[in-house]
Amino acid sequence: IGPSVVLTQDSTRHQMTVKKNGKVVRTIPTSSGRPGYDTRSGTKVVMSKEPYVVMDAASLGVAEDDPDYYRLEVYNAMRITWSGEYIHSAPWSVGSQGYYNVSHGCINVSPDNASWLMNTLNVGDVITVKNSGASHDGNDGNGWTQWNESWSEWQKGSALKG
């Protein structure tokens, strides 16, 4: 329980707007997924806050000799899907943040902004990703995806259906 915090990530504009109790408190330059690794559009929820995580493309089936392979130590990471989309500190992409999408699907922010987000967000806070080039459709269950269902769709699966 706490203040309402809602993030909106616009992958075309390369920025995230953070609203707290309905008021914009910060606009953050970002870099999201590049073509072929697009960050999925849709409404997601912060599932965990991880001060440190090792991200290894091998977990996605990418071989170490593939040019798209990476193994990175990442700080201040907030998970938004089970398949590995995070909002996280990415000092290596600061020059692209606000201008280009260069990630493998995560939302990259500067170390300072990642630290601020870690201190501001709570598990359960909502992020809506738009204009990414990839839809969240067909990814039900890849995170806390109930936010992507209409009320009538959600009620169809409810134990309380009439």
Structure summarized in a few sentences:
The chain has helices at residues 111-120, 151-156; strands at 5-10, 15-20, 23-29, 40-45, 48-56, 71-79, 86-89, 107-109, 126-130, 134-135. It is mainly beta.
Distance between the termini: 31 Å
Number of strands: 10
- State the assembly state of the protein chains: single chain
> What global shape is seen?
globular
- Percent helix: under 10%
Major beta sheet, strand line-up: 3-2-1-9-4-10
Spell out the helices and strands N to C.
EEEEEEEEHEEH
Q: Mean pLDDT across all residues, rounded?
A: 88
> What's the helix count?
2
What class, by secondary structure content? mainly beta
Largest beta-sheet details: 6 strands, mixed
Radius of gyration, CA atoms, in whole angstroms? 16 Å
Beta-strand residue fraction:
35-45%
Which regions contain 5 or more consecutive residues with pLDDT less than 50?
Answer: none
Describe the protein.
By secondary structure, the protein is mainly beta. The two termini are 31 Å apart. The longest helix has 10 residues, at 111-120. It has a 6-stranded mixed β-sheet, with no helix packed on it. Strands 5-6-7-8 form a 4-stranded mixed β-sheet, covered by helices on one side. It has helices at 111-120, 151-156, and strands spanning 5-10, 15-20, 23-29, 40-45, 48-56, 71-79, 86-89, 107-109, 126-130, 134-135. The chain is globular and about 50 Å long.
